[in-house]
């Protein structure tokens, strides 16, 4: 796996860009989430800067004047890293690091770093490693710039270009090797799913930190790790329940979704997320205290669309209701919804009754002759 430097004691300045129709307020809210991600990764956020411009600067993403401002902010605030809320091109990242003389990372690599730290099972480690390598491959050029500076014009291509090509070849070989392993993993998962074809399958989905794992523990009497932080759960956990249900019910806890999730992660986690697409029922868990509740519900549905799970029946579950004042469900499509507190175990019996009802209908359908 690629080693990523932990940003435990780093002091970071967050940067966002409001482009065209993107309102400054929206970017400010997005930086709030980026701040939570940075803290989850171990950084201390010491400042933030938002620029409004018609389009990104091809060379620096932000304007050259703001680059100068950031350099001053790093000195004034004692910062040593800049975290951008959007994806940077390899050239933009290199240009910024050269101008700022500080580490520059973007939201995708920050999320990848968190995933690399939190992955526990061999499967999730493989998936994160693949995503890291695919993200890093086009950025290898910058690692060998020192050869050009050292040797100048004639002879500059020799060692640098040779080493770069060796590195690229090694990374591509590693990527191919990981993909083969993940194909096998996907086949193993498909075999497991085939064995469970006639069972009623329930998958918990939702925005990160909505309380899915806490609800999963309540519904299955499991002991999945929970915490009030982003991306506590990366490894898909499955439990088969029979007590209290008319048939065996399989519950699956899944990785939380987030805005601007790196597409490399979605691709590499597809074999895991197929548990969601193959489910008979989705429990879409949302945090009822979340000020951006509607946006996070929309983002979850967007990811569900990307993995081909839009046709799976679902129940909206508004969690943490014990901390919400006068909450009214966003039930504009006539969706079945439940107000619960997984922590206080409020509203759980009604939710379980609905799952029992649906699993009963499922059992009748698969038992009926064609």
Mean pLDDT: 81
Mind summarizing the main beta sheet?
6 strands, mixed
Fraction of residues in helix: 40-55%
What is the CATH T-level topology of the largest domain? Rossmann fold
For the termini, the CA-CA separation is: 50 Å
Shape: globular
* Unreliable residue stretches: 4-8, 142-160
Rg result: 23 Å
Structural class: alpha/beta
> Tell me, what is the CATH class of the largest domain?
Alpha Beta
Total strands: the figure is: 10
How much beta, percentage-wise?
15-25%
Q: What string gives the helices and strands in order?
A: EHEHEHEHHHHEHEEHHEHEEH
Specify the CATH homologous superfamily of the largest domain.
P-loop containing nucleotide triphosphate hydrolases
Give the assembly state of these chains.
single chain
CATH level-two architecture of the largest domain: 3-Layer(aba) Sandwich
User: Strands of the largest sheet, in order across it?
Assistant: 6-7-5-8-9-10
Number of domains: 3
- Total DSSP helices: 12
Fold blueprint:
Blueprint lengths: L10 E9 L4 H17 L3 E10 L10 H14 L3 E4 L5 H11 L2 E4 H12 L3 H15 L8 H7 L5 H39 L4 E7 L5 H9 L16 E5 L7 E5 L9 H6 L1 H8 L3 E7 L5 H14 L7 E6 L17 E3 L8 H20 L3
Parallel strand pairs: 1-2, 1-3, 3-4, 5-7, 5-8, 8-9, 9-10
Antiparallel strand pairs: 6-7
């Amino acid at each position: 796996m690629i080693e990523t430097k932990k940003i435990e004691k780093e002091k970071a300045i967050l940067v966002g860009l409001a482009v065209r129709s993107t309102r400054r307020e929206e970017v400010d809210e997005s930086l709030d989430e980026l701040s939570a991600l940075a803290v989850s990764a171990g950084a201390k956020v010491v400042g933030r800067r938002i620029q409004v411009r018609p389009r990104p600067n091809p060379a620096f993403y932000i304007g050259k004047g703001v680059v100068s401002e950031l350099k001053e902010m790093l000195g004034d605030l004692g910062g040593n890293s800049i975290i951008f809320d959007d994806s940077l091109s390899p050239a933009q990242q290199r240009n910024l690091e050269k101008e700022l003389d500080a580490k520059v990372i973007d939201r995708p690599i920050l999320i990848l770093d968190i995933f690399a730290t939190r992955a526990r099972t061999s499967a999730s480690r493989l998936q994160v490693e693949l995503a890291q390598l695919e993200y890093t491959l086009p950025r290898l050029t910058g690692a060998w710039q020192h050869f050009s500076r050292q040797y100048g014009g004639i002879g500059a291509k020799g060692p640098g270009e040779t080493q770069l090509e060796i590195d690229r070849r090694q990374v591509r070989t590693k990527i191919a090797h990981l993909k083969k392993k993940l194909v096998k993993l996907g086949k193993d998962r498909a075999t497991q799913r085939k064995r469970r074809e006639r069972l009623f399958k329930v998958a918990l989905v939702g925005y990160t930190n909505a309380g899915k794992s806490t609800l999963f523990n309540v519904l299955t009497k499991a002991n999945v790790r929970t915490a009030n932080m982003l991306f506590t759960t990366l490894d898909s956990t499955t439990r088969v329940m029979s007590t209290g249900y008319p048939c065996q019910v399989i519950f699956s806890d899944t990785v939380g979704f987030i805005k601007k999730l790196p597409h490399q992660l979605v691709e590499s986690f597809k074999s895991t997320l197929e548990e969601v697409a193959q489910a008979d029922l989705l429990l879409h868990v949302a945090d009822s205290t979340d000020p951006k509740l509607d946006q996070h519900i929309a983002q979850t549905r967007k990811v569900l669309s990307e993995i081909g799970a839009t046709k799976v029946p679902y129940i909206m579950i508004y969690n943490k209701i014990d901390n919400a004042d006068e909450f009214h469900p966003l039930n504009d499509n006539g969706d079945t919804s439940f107000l619960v507190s997984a922590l206080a175990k409020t509203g759980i019996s009604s939710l379980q009754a609905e799952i029992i009802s649906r699993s009963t209908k499922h059992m009748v359908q698969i038992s009926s002759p064609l």
